[in-house]
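Work Package 4 report. The design task specified in the project plan requires that, given a folded chain encoded as structure tokens, an amino acid be chosen for each position. We show below one input record used in the internal validation round.
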């Protein structure tokens, strides 16, 4: 259900927060207003509630291959500019038996603002978070951190919007955690870099921090360094310089500004990029929550995130269909007459699913399973070795689903095809064709069953992918896969009785 805003004056609170943020940032850039003290003990105190604002400006190039599955060599480059704002409050969570000073491994968030304006290759787009998705949970047991909704399902576009290159949960890990004097220098360890920069690993390089100034109220730091690392198996190189302020009264980092140059490799799910970014983060402790619910969300720290909460909503604007799938699935291409989803696990391609619209049948007419099997045989031709199985069912969405599993070979490689025909009583039809090599069956883990039960036809008003209708795919052109011809009804259709339609 949708979250209802409490009766607090949120607008006034936001104005107060922004005014305070400006004052903090100005004080951090200026020289200390009080005489510098000789030393300061930089030990972050435990925090419960924080208000955070992050502003990001990005400029650079997106790099695309012709086919990211076959080669990651750059074939095209597109200029990109982007301005994003995240403004949220977060409640830090630890296991019940954890010490108050232990690392935060989860947080509850309420996003007051989450928006992005970008221009990619002269095409402008804007994205905002849906109101129903403003409440979220962040888990950090493994990196990069996972964000999910306790009640609803994000789209991949919304998840990308909420991903920040700097984590507000762990920014205090950039602090030395000991007494310092002005001019002290220390190296930030790789675990802290992974945690704050949301990286899976840091493989080489170093980032160094220097104590730039000490006053009675604050300690200022300068950051600089280069690192090479990875995010879910995709290599990235980062050069950064920045400034950071530790508030001695609040005992936490309240301001961070970074200038980053990042070059990320092309992955099988997303294009690569070479960009420069300016990131400004302001944090301030809160005495009480404004929009977060008073009752804490249930987080079972001794268990993995429930699988069903990690589904992502995938939608095809062109085909007007939607489905809930594991987050390993991405909508790679969405063009008139064809949509392509790809399953990627740590930059390893597992399977591909091609979606095709079929000619609408007269109301009350349906294909038979026998007709679908015959069409599969005709489409695969000499590639087909055997039909493994065929079945039919009514899905949880009320659609009739025909399913045929076939084995064969392509260029000497054993292939498994899972072809599914979806139809409703109005005659709307769509075909889904999963293609995967035989050695990926275990990793595929029966994802066709999830598609079978969750695929549904959409009204245009239900589509909320956050993309302009004419946006082109930039993750590389998908490979062609066998499809069942979109043919008009023949004698291979059957007429449903009124009881069948029910």
């Amino acid at each position: 259900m949708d979250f209802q805003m409490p009766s607090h004056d949120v607008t006034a609170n936001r104005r107060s927060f922004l005014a305070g943020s400006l004052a903090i940032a100005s004080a951090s850039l200026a020289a200390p207003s009080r005489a510098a003290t000789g030393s300061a003990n930089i030990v972050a105190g435990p925090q419960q509630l924080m208000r955070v604002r992050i502003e990001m400006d990005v400029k650079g190039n997106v790099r695309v291959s012709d086919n990211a599955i076959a080669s990651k060599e750059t074939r095209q480059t597109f200029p990109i500019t982007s301005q994003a704002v995240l403004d949220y409050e977060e409640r830090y969570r630890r296991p019940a038996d954890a010490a108050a000073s232990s690392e935060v491994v989860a947080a509850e968030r309420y996003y007051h603002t989450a928006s992005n304006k970008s221009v990619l290759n002269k095409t402008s787009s804007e994205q905002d978070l849906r109101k129903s998705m403003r409440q979220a949970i962040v888990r950090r047991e493994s990196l990069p951190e996972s964000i999910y909704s306790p009640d609803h399902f994000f789209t991949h576009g919304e998840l990308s919007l909420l991903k920040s290159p700097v984590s507000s949960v762990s920014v205090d890990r950039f602090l030395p955690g000991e007494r310092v004097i002005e001019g002290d220098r220390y190296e930030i360890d790789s675990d802290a870099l992974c945690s704050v920069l949301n990286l899976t690993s840091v493989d080489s390089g170093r980032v160094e921090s220097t104590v730039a100034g000490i006053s009675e109220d604050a300690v200022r730091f300068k950051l600089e360094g280069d690192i090479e690392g990875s995010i879910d198996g995709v290599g990235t190189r980062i050069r950064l310089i920045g400034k950071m302020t530790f508030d001695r009264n609040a005992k936490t980092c309240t301001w961070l500004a970074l200038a980053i140059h990042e070059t990320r490799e092309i992955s099988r799910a997303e294009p690569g990029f070479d960009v420069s970014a300016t990131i400004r983060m302001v944090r301030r402790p809160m005495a009480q929550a404004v929009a977060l619910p008073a009752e804490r969300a249930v987080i079972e720290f001794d268990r993995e995130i429930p699988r069903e909460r990690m589904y992502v909503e995938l939608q095809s604007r062109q085909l007007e269909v939607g489905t809930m799938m594991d987050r390993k699935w991405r909508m790679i291409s969405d063009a008139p007459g064809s949509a392509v989803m790809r399953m990627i696990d740590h930059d390893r391609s597992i399977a591909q699913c091609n979606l095709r619209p079929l000619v609408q049948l007269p109301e009350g007419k349906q294909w038979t399973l026998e007709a679908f099997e015959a069409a599969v045989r005709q489409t695969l031709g000499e590639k087909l070795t055997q039909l493994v199985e065929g079945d039919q069912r009514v899905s949880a969405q009320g659609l009739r689903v025909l399913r045929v599993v076939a084995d064969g070979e392509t260029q000497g490689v054993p292939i498994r095809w899972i072809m599914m025909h979806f139809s409703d009583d109005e005659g709307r039809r769509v075909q889904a064709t999963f293609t995967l090599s035989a050695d990926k069956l275990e990793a595929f883990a029966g994802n066709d069953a999830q598609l079978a039960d969750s695929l549904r036809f959409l009204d245009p008003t239900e589509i909320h992918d956050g993309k302009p209708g004419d946006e082109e795919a930039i993750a590389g052109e998908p490979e062609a896969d066998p499809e069942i011809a979109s043919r008009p009804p023949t004698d291979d259709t059957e007429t449903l009785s009124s009881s069948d339609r029910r």
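DSSP finds seven helices and 26 strands in the chain. Validation will be extended to a larger panel in the next phase.
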